[in-house]
Write a structure and sequence with these properties.
This protein is an alpha/beta fold. The protein is built from 18 helices and 16 strands. The protein is about 40% helix and about 20% strand. The chain has an eight-stranded parallel beta barrel, surrounded by nine helices. The radius of gyration is 29 Å and the shape is elongated.
């Protein structure tokens, strides 16, 4: 099925994603054509109504996207929209090159951006209010005449309405008179507050009714400069708007656009709008993180609904209540959106937290109060000297296994060392030696490995991997993804205690381990050694 076709009827409420265009305005976010195609497929899987693909004719990469989408992009629920401007002032619409490019894109829906603030008409377009109205009306009519569904984003609408409501409302009316299906009210500067949105939408609706457009469909596009993007969009929906725009994970220029996933969850779970099927909705968290990986902007852990910390509980008092009823400290069932409750183990953890965390990891600890007490005490003691299990679930699981007497002992460490020296030519050479004793079946085979690396930590990692490789070849499938160092008592200067957090992935796993020591090398060794031990354990060795 080509992008010009869609199998599903257009619903009464539009969920319009603009990640591929407005989201890519974010500082540091750049999408290749392949990236855009991959994100579009995930958005279609999620079940959005429209996917705004970009600005063909103005951005070469977007022109290529629409060319490739025609052959490569099969959409089952969404329609593809092309974004562009009205005709230029003084240029006949049939002769405007960018309007022609919108038609050439093949997109069934075209979203035009139009000026609605008279100050921008005079200052940015350098034309008259009357010519701007003609630009809107003639471009909409031309595109509708070519068989396209046309939306109009009225830029700076809310600010313009505050300056000159009569003119701003006349731009909206002109778009409807020319055949626009939806006019989208844009808080382009992101400075509105919810009560202002309500007041202006209600005022506009009264003006449109008087002008013969009582049933006109309105949309909203909000930015987060005042921290109210999602709230403003929700209050617009309460005021009767049935078309929302936003970006996945709140991407966008400056402080971002309204987070479309938060909006979707709020509307579906809190306001009882049936926007996507439950089985699709349950994929939201996975899709959020998949898109985050594609655009190289990971989901922030504290993101509502889909963040790793969205349903994470730390305090012991919370844990005691959650053990009785998880809903006591959660506003929704996280499984509805594909997330999960998570217990954080820290020095605040009591026996209830430990029990719930054990259950999360697959251990039933409820019948062993002595073990729970020992674990809680051990966690508090270890965190007092610098360990942190909040972000190191793998290290906590190894600690739990140790308390259960089930911790795997693949090898014993005889010794390790790392040395660095600078040659006469200024080159820094680093070498590490690791000596291990043990094997896969309990034999006492001695392994010695020497490796050079880019610094002592890298050299130790390579030497440890080499010492393990003959007996445990799967270690080569694990890769250190992130390495974080924190000085815990900075007042001691270079003699300070150091904590190292290592994130490792491989064999379908991703996990974090922690090490603490009087120097960064010792702390790093502990975190890296535990990472390989945990990886082998989870691989069933």
């Amino acid at each position: 099925m080509s992008m010009m076709q869609h199998s599903a009827p257009i619903p009464a409420f539009h969920v319009y994603d603009t990640t591929l265009r407005d989201g890519s305005q974010q500082e540091g976010l750049t999408l290749s054509v392949a990236d855009k195609l991959a994100v579009a497929r995930l958005l279609d899987e999620l079940g959005v109504t429209y996917i705004e693909g970009g600005w063909p004719g103005a951005v070469p990469r977007d022109t290529e996207f629409f060319d490739r989408a025609a052959a490569e992009l099969e959409l089952s629920t969404a329609r593809l929209a092309a974004f562009g401007a009205t005709r230029k002032a003084g240029v006949p619409v049939a002769e405007d090159a960018q309007v022609a490019a919108l038609l050439a894109s093949g997109a069934p829906t075209i979203t035009l951006v139009a000026k609605s603030d008279l100050r921008h008409v005079h200052g940015a377009l350098r034309t008259t209010g009357e010519e701007n109205l003609a630009m809107v009306a003639e471009t909409v009519a031309h595109l509708v005449g070519q068989g396209r569904e046309v939306f109009v984003d009225v830029e700076h609408f809310f600010d313009g309405f505050g300056h000159d409501p009569d003119y701003t409302a006349s731009v909206v009316a002109a778009a409807y008179d020319a055949g626009a299906e939806v006019v989208v009210l844009c808080d382009t500067n992101g400075g509105m507050l919810p009560h202002q949105i309500t007041e202006i939408v209600e005022d506009l609706r009264a003006r449109l009714t008087a002008a013969g457009h009582a049933d006109a469909r309105l949309g909203v596009h909000t930015h987060n400069d005042s921290g109210c993007a999602v709230a403003n969009a929700l209050t617009a929906v309460r005021a009767g708007i049935t078309h929302i725009q936003g970006c996945v994970n709140g991407y966008g220029e400056r402080t971002g656009n309204a987070d479309l996933l938060t909006l979707l969850a709020d509307l579906q779970l809190k306001m009882d709008l049936d926007l996507v099927p439950p089985e699709t909705f349950a994929e939201t968290t996975r899709i959020a993180h998949a898109i985050g990986e594609i655009v190289n902007m990971p989901v922030t852990p504290r993101a509502p609904y889909v963040g790793a910390s969205a349903f994470a509980h730390k305090a012991g008092l919370h844990a005691s209540a959650i053990r009785v009823d998880p809903d006591l400290y959660q506003h929704i069932d996280p499984r509805a959106i594909g997330n999960d409750m998570r217990m954080i183990i820290s020095d605040m953890a009591g026996r209830a937290s430990i029990e719930l965390k054990g259950r999360e990891l697959g251990f039933d600890l409820a019948g062993d109060p002595d073990l729970l007490t020992r674990l809680a005490t051990t966690v508090k003691q270890r965190e007092a000297v610098g360990y942190s299990y909040e972000a190191a679930d793998a290290s906590f699981e190894l600690l739990l296994l140790d308390q259960l007497g089930e911790v795997p002992r693949y090898v014993e460490v005889e010794s390790w060392r790392a040395t660095s020296q600078q040659g006469r030519d200024g080159t820094l050479e680093t070498e590490a030696t690791v000596k291990l004793v043990g094997g896969a079946h309990g034999e006492q085979e001695r392994k010695v490995a020497i490796a050079e690396g880019n610094g002592p930590v890298n050299a130790l990692d390579l030497a440890l991997r080499a010492a393990l490789r003959d007996t445990f070849p799967m270690v080569d499938e694990f890769e250190l993804q992130d390495f974080k160092v924190r000085i815990l008592d900075a007042q001691h200067g270079t003699d300070a205690t150091t904590r190292v957090l290592v994130r490792t992935s491989g064999r379908g796993l991703e996990f974090q381990t922690v090490g603490v020591g009087p120097n960064v090398i010792e702390a790093s060794w502990e975190a890296i050694f535990d990472a390989y031990a945990y990886g082998l354990y989870k691989s069933g060795v």
